[in-house]
Design goal:
Layout (H helix, E strand, L loop, with lengths): L7 H4 L4 E4 L7 H13 L1 E3 L6 E3 L3 E4 L5 H6 L5 H7 L16 H15 L6 E2 L1 H9 L5 H15 L4 E2 L6 H12 L10 H15 L4 H8 L3 H11 L1 H10 L3
Parallel strand pairs: 1-4, 5-6
Antiparallel strand pairs: 2-3
């Protein structure tokens, strides 16, 4: 450093510093961060003076830090210093009910950036977003909406504006056609639809309810009717 520059930690003195992707920092940076957390002090880059600081650290990662500790990639002492009050955030695919709110937010953000007039998204496009498994979580959703806003040729974002991997999830769902015999009762058709959808989602009831277009309570009520023994066993185990 050729001149005096305040780093993030020094500038955050008396406040809060958010460190994203904490699992990616180097071994050398881990040692320095541990000193800040343990002793409340650091040495500025290019300096010799020890500086005291009072900063609250919030760290986030999509890695399993306990596994990283076991594999020697993350310091055990730093992990315990950071793990004072852990908050586990569920994956986006496990909270499909949040997707419409996030979609509306990102549409507003990117339509202003691109100076486009958009009034929203088609129902079918939104259904695909709620069905997709989102391996990249919210960042992937944000990128998908940014692309959709750029691609949109109409006032409403359509399926054609979505990324290919999201559109393909619709084809995957279509391929799992449910066949029923002529003469089946509506109750038999409904039962088969529900059980086949649960099979498709591998037992994920939240996702199944989203695909079927019904509430989770409605799905549970119908499962009580069609699979009473299974539901009773789940209740006994405290499974929802």
């Amino acid at each position: 450093a050729n001149g005096r520059r305040l780093g993030k930690i020094e500038r955050s003195n008396g406040g809060t510093l958010f460190l994203d992707e904490i699992g990616e920092i180097s071994a050398n940076a881990q040692v320095k961060l541990l000193r800040v957390l343990q002793d409340g002090e650091f040495t500025r880059v290019g300096g010799n003076e020890t500086i005291k600081t009072d900063v609250r650290i919030i760290a986030a990662t999509n890695q399993n830090l306990q596994e990283s500790v076991e594999q020697g990639r993350f310091r055990k002492d730093l992990f315990y210093r950071l793990n004072v009050f852990p908050i586990n955030l569920p994956r986006l695919k496990d909270r499909a009910e949040d997707i419409p709110l996030l979609v509306n937010h990102f549409i507003e953000v990117y339509k202003r950036k691109s100076n486009k007039y958009l009034i929203g998204m088609s129902e079918r496009a939104l259904r695909l977003l709620k069905h997709y498994h989102w391996p990249g979580n919210i960042r992937e959703l944000e990128n998908a909406i940014e692309r959709a806003v750029i691609m949109a040729a109409k006032k409403i974002i359509t399926v054609e504006d979505l990324p290919e991997e999201v559109r393909n999830s619709d084809e995957e769902l279509k391929e799992r056609a449910v066949y029923v015999e002529v003469g089946s009762t509506m109750e038999e058709v409904e039962k088969k639809m529900i059980l086949e959808t649960l099979n498709f989602t591998r037992g994920d009831k939240k996702k199944a309810a989203t695909i079927l277009g019904i509430g989770r309570k409605t799905l549970y009520r119908k499962l009580d009717k069609y699979q009473p023994r299974a539901r009773k066993a789940e209740s006994a185990l405290g499974i929802a």
